Amino acid sequence: MSAYQVNRDTIDLMVSVLVEWGGVGGRSPYVYTYSNLPNDEQLLEETEGRGGYNVTRATYDTADALGRELIDANVRSLTARYSDGVEMCGYYSEGYTWRRVTSDEASIARAMGAVKCYQYQACEYDEWRTSFAHELSARVMDKLVDMISEGWDYERPANAPRVISLMDIVRENKGGK
């Protein structure tokens, strides 16, 4: 599959999740990252170091900057992957203005798919794994998972029936010898 530039709606959706969509305990105006600082000047001003991590404000005021950061990483990926990567881009971060995408317009599952698509399209440059855009996309996914999660821990229900397979019996017998 070839890499390509994701459409602006995908960027708008990811920024909308960060800025407006809720999660467990509601929406937090902060994005916590552990890798590199953002490249966007406005986001850099809105980011502060706290020990081993960085905290960036994800608000209406920073929405355009969050989108620019994501767009720049996608463009960088294309230029790293293809000699004509710049020509493949239909738009750039300059002049980007965020347009809200509500949870009525896109389901959580659809948004999760969009994040995975973005990550695939933006991962072609060497510094991707330590980039702010990579972590930003991971935080979008975290927020989406929080919105559908039924909790962190799992414990079998007290009176749940136990299904035993032939492989379970073989494993139990191997451990008993």
Overview of this protein structure:
- With 177 residues, this protein is mainly alpha-helical.
- It has one domain.
- It has helices at residues 8-19, 41-45, 63-81, 85-88, 108-122, 132-148, 166-176, and strands at 30-33, 47-50, 53-57.
- A 3-stranded antiparallel beta sheet has the order 1-3-2.
- A hairpin with a 2-residue loop joins strand 2 (47-50) and strand 3 (53-57).
- Helix 1 crosses helix 3 (63-81), helix 1 (8-19) crosses helix 5 and helix 1 (8-19) packs across helix 6.
Keywords:
3-stranded antiparallel beta sheet, 7 helices, globular
Write the layout of secondary structure elements.
Blueprint: H1 8-19, E1 30-33, H2 41-45, E2 47-50, E3 53-57, H3 63-81, H4 85-88, H5 108-122, H6 132-148, H7 166-176
Antiparallel strand pairs: 1-3, 2-3
Helix pairs in contact: 1-3, 1-5, 1-6, 3-6, 5-6
What is the number of domains? 1
Question: Strand count, sense and closure of the main sheet?
Answer: 3 strands, antiparallel
Low-confidence segments: none
The averaged pLDDT comes out at 91
Order of helices and strands: HEHEEHHHHH
Helix content: 40-55%
Tell me the strand order in the biggest sheet.
1-3-2
Structural class: mainly alpha
**Residue share in β-strands:** 5-15%
Number of strands: 3
Give me the Rg, rounded: 20 Å
How many distinct helices? 7
Structural shape: globular
- Span of the ends, CA to CA: 50 Å
